Amino acid sequence: MTCLKICGITNLEDALRATELGVDALGFVFYPPSPRWVDKETAREIIEALPRDVIKVGLFVDEAKGKVEEVATYCGLDMLQFHGNETPDYCARFGRRVIKAFRIRDEGSLALIPDYNVDFYLLDAYNPDVPGGTGQTFHWDLALRAKEFGKPVILSGGLTPGNVISAIKKVSPFGVDVSSGVEASAGKKDHKKLKEFIEKVSNVG
After folding, report:
1. Which CATH number covers residue 194?
2. Domain that holds residue 175
3. Which of 47, 113, 176, 179 would disulfide-bridge 8, Cβ 3.0–4.6 Å?
4. H or E element that contains 93
């Protein structure tokens, strides 16, 4: 089965609906410029209401290590996701599982990936203006190349109910990650799209 992560959770209603539908992980964005940013108090309230077996992921962008540790402990995060220019050394300093996101533009974007000894590689589309949540796809052949580096690959970037089956069949990733592709507006999920996306991922395996 393909692991399924829904990112950009900002409210309890969306979080509970996603868990009811069978997601494996939920992502919380602790990056204030993002329209999907959530403060640590709200995130903690949501997380405390979730089933224990749902993986809670905190997304950070070039944040100080101490701040990451503070938020992770306060909210009870299971995993950290780094979406900025964090170095391999930085990513290795935490006592939690780590996802390192890479913005893929072309083959050259793959060059630094093997330097990172993290638990998962997340591949997102490159946009010079924002570090993630672009709603754009990238050439999935590059994701196949990234799988050769030996770490589980999570595919992201412009996934929707309309293209996720093709993406999984093409790449066979460890997991898929969606945010804008199942939204009614930034930070608010469309529950019809959410259900359709999750059902398609479950059916394709």
Report:
1. 3.20.20.70
2. 3-204
3. 179
4. none
Which segments within 78-202 are labelled E, that is strand?
79-82, 97-104, 120-125, 153-155, 175-178, 183-185, 188-189
CA-to-CA dists, residue 194 to 36, 101, 180, angstroms: 16, 22, 10
In the set 14, 75, 91, 124, the catalytic residue is: 124
Overall size of the chain counted in residues: 205
Task: Check 7, 14, 75, 177 and give the catalytic one.
Answer: 7
Q: How many CA atoms lie within 13 A of 152 on its CB side?
A: 11
- Number of independent structural domains in the chain: 1
pLDDT in tens, 33-82: 999 999 999 999 999 999 999 999 999 999 999 999 999 999 999 999 99
Residue 124: active-site member:
yes
pTM higher than the cut 0.85: yes
